[in-house]
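[Q] Does anyone have a clean structure-token version of this?
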Amino acid sequence: MARKLFGTDGIRGTANADPMTAEIALRVGMAAGKIFTRGDHRHTVVIAKDTRLSGYLLEPALAAGFIAMGMDVVMIGPMPTPSVAMLTRSLRADLGVMISASHNPYEDNGIKLFGPDGYKLSDDAEAEIEALMAQDLSNFTAPSAKLGRAMRLDDADGRYIEFVKNTFPRGLRLDGLKIVVDCAHGAAYKVAPAALWELGADVVKIGVAPDGFNINQGCGSTAPDAMCQAVVQHGAQLGIALDGDADRVVVSDEHGHLLDGDQVMAMVARSWKNSERLKGGGVVATVMSNLGLERYLAGIGLHLARTQVGDRYVVEKMREGGYNVGGEQSGHIILADYATTGDGLIAALEVLACVVQSGRPVSECGRMFTPYPQVLKSVRYNGGAPLEDAKVARAIDGWKQKLGTTGRLVIRKSGTEPVIRVMAEGEDKAVIDRAVAEIVAEIERAARGVAA
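[A] Here you go.
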């Protein structure tokens, strides 16, 4: 079954416009509620959101859908996406829902669904929900005596903070470390600073004043300059920037220099290999991860397994191959010993554990390899299929042959917006600049409808 509503990370779009309307949210709740009502027990769904204004629109609509199907709803308010995965398992709930558009601006929102095992739903499960949404859902609603109830979980913050702290090695503390944490005015604005402070850190908080509109606005993991500048300004030893729903993280060293998800994965992989904790003989990452990561891992006897873009596909590969470290260059880091999805705060604590154990500054212990030059550009298009254009195909094939084994070329359509991303990397920056420029020009021409 094909999916039309669901992309690589749930349903996403402009809030209060198709498909991110209250009506769609209601039908998602009803369809998912019907499918995940299995057995005679009292069924439960956990719902969280980030700090977008439109959360007030979508949260009650989803809740109403689940309640109509006889499911109880546990609402936990603004909390990180990984907290939904954790609490769904902890509470023995039948389903988890996160209302968030992750790193997108406030105008957008999204719906992510987690199964009772805490993992994001498979493509097949999402397709099944879509198919049911197209039917007359009134045929499946619960009788009035069996409607669900809604309640708030008052200690959700505390449960998640304790869960995160318990991933930090016993006996280690963050005493004496000054840490800047940028919460992107998003879902982790309370829990991330609290967890770091309780572990002993001197915490400098930024991006912790959400107003419904400022999520990811000039802050967070997609705009980390503010965090990097704050590290230098406050003389901090480390900076942490989360995104709007806190499932991704990037790190700054003490000089304000950025470490992306590839560097974090390399750091964790080496540490876990040395402590004989690493499973699968390597790391799982996407096609976007730098060639430098792949060659670094090979140099220490590990391999890099690549997947298509999307942390859900990384998780699937990890589960198939028995890996316990994986992620994306953008900062989605999945540490399967602790979590079923990307968790920016847990990944940050793992970096901090490496720093504390090494006794060296982040600039020395955290920069694992020199990245190969990498250029990424996005081309927005309105309908059509630019990648099927003959001249576009010839340009891509031609540059793949020119790069050969000295570089890589990745061209893909975004799973969340009408954008084609063109990435090239290799040993010669001038060469990859030309490759990207020529391919982008052809895609833009095709997107305008100019004949090949």
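[Q] Thanks! Anything notable?
[A] The chain has a mean pLDDT of 95.
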